[in-house]
Amino acid sequence: MRIAITGSSGLIGKALVRSLRADGHDVVRFVRRTAAAPDEATWDPRCGYVGPTGLAGCAAVVHLAGAGVGDHRWTAAYKKEIRDSRVGGTDALARAIAALDEPPAVFVSGSAIGYYGDTGDRAVDEHAPAGRGFLPEVCVEWEAAAAPAQEAGVRTVFARTGLVVAAEGGAWGKLFPIFRAGIGGRLGNGRQYWSFISMHDEIAALRHAIDTPELSGPVNLTAPEPLTNREVTAAMGRVLHRPTLFAVPAPAMRVVLGEFAGDVLGSQRVRPARLLETGFTFRYPGIDEAIRAALGR
């Protein structure tokens, strides 16, 4: 199968490319520069350009590109970058897909559980409405931008990803060195829910979305049972054999992170109903095993 991927240089994108190629699939990587290799195609989401040859003959397109939410302090300029990189890129790709004489069978467009906002102790699945705040607003616009592909009859899946447990990058990549040093601890009161997923299951779920014809619309990519930050902290201590005595007070986080602290301290108790309904099996459903898998244990 020929599959096009944006965001192939990112944490999830790299792992997905490796997984697909290991099984013999032909992967086209969209890059934001002049294509320099046979497996590359050029696109420029800022100006809406998508290289026409990159999508030709593709059975699936997976869109994972977007500015990192936690990479910088949320200034007005960076919030615009977060929104534009997602909404503009998705719109450009969806329009290019819709314009093809033979469009792909499926468009898997990245999204996030930020769609639901702060759910507190309330468990939510794909039927829940959007929350309030910056990230929910971005997610709503992000998903709406895929409309041209949907209207062209392409099965479209919104992969609402949770916190990916990985040592190589992302939020967990920043946590591991802190906990290894013995200075890790809960964030705020620690009662906020974290909806996590192992890297292995994240990639398997994306491939499940590609291969499962009955899947369309929003699909939560999270482990079956979310845990509180306090429980996650305890698991990190158990697996790494380190104390977890330190805690980061909420006011200190707001000073360091600014507006983004509200989302870090917020609670998202998200469950993957659509994955489970379509027969997906998690290899690492528990937090301890997900952490061990990230460490190669």
Report on this structure.
The protein is of the alpha/beta class and 297 residues long. It has a single domain, classed as NAD(P)-binding Rossmann-like Domain (Rossmann fold, 3-Layer(aba) Sandwich). It contains twelve helices and 14 strands. Helix 3 (76-98) packs parallel to helix 4 (134-144). The longest helix has 23 residues, at 76-98. The model has no long low-confidence stretch (mean pLDDT 92).
Please, what is the average pLDDT? Answer: 92
Q: Give a short account of the largest sheet.
A: 8 strands, mixed
Note the total helix count: 12
CATH topology annotation:
Rossmann fold
Rg for CA atoms:
19 Å
Which structural category do the helix and sheet elements fall into? alpha/beta
The CATH top-level class label: Alpha Beta
Beta-strand fraction estimate: 15-25%
Helix content: 25-40%
Question: Short summary of the structure?
Answer:
This protein is an alpha/beta fold and 297 residues long. The protein contains 12 helices and 14 strands.
Q: Topology, please?
A:
Layout: E1 2-6, H1 11-22, E2 26-31, E3 40-44, E4 49-50, H2 52-55, E5 60-63, H3 76-98, E6 106-112, E7 123-124, H4 134-144, H5 147-151, E8 155-161, E9 163-165, H6 170-180, E10 193-194, E11 196-198, H7 199-211, E12 217-221, E13 227-228, H8 229-240, H9 250-257, H10 261-265, E14 269-270, H11 273-277, H12 287-294
Parallel strand pairs: 1-2, 1-5, 2-3, 5-6, 6-8, 7-14, 8-12, 9-11
Antiparallel strand pairs: 3-4, 10-13
